[in-house]
Amino acid sequence: NVPNTPCVFLGCLDPEKFKDFKLVKRTQLSHNVAKFKFALPTPTSVLGLPIGQHISCRGKDSLNEDVVKPYTPTTLDSDVGYFELVIKMYPQGRMSQHFQVMCEGDYLAVKGPK
Ligand SMILES: Cc1cc2nc3c(=O)[nH]c(=O)nc-3n(C[C@H](O)[C@H](O)[C@H](O)COP(=O)(O)OP(=O)(O)OC[C@H]3O[C@@H](n4cnc5c(N)ncnc54)[C@H](O)[C@@H]3O)c2cc1C
User: 71-103 burial, b if ≥16 CB within 10 A, otherwise e?
Assistant: First the structure.
């Protein structure tokens, strides 16, 4: 991406650098699965993730150490302005722990496409 260029056509991801996306809605789907909806910078932005590719998400584990894991959004680039992740949370999972404690308004560091 060219710096400061709206990611309407190019997509919002940077394969080299983590970018922060705001959690705007968290929906519990079962006892250990939740859907996380993240806002893109503008309502007309697209994530820019080709089908079959995934993103890297960075968080902190219970020891406050960085952890990076791959995830596949359940949304497509035809879903403008946001993307969603459906996450299964494991009791001792390092990245799961990060998602477990995320609240609406928090930011997630994301890099991609991978
Ligand atoms: C391309 C790709 C896309 C993915 N997309 C998604 C997605 O959309 N949604 C999703 O939920 N996941 C997805 N995953 C899986 C995701 O990347 C993580 O592996 C998952 O979230 C678990 O990570 P974690 O750090 O929470 O758990 P980990 O810390 O890796 O632990 C997972 C489980 O193993 C147990 N465990 C860990 N170490 C040990 C040990 N030494 N002995 C015994 N048990 C142990 C933990 O207690 C826990 O129950 C995807 C993976 C890939 C490769």
Answer: bebebeeeebebbebebebeeebbbbbbbbebe
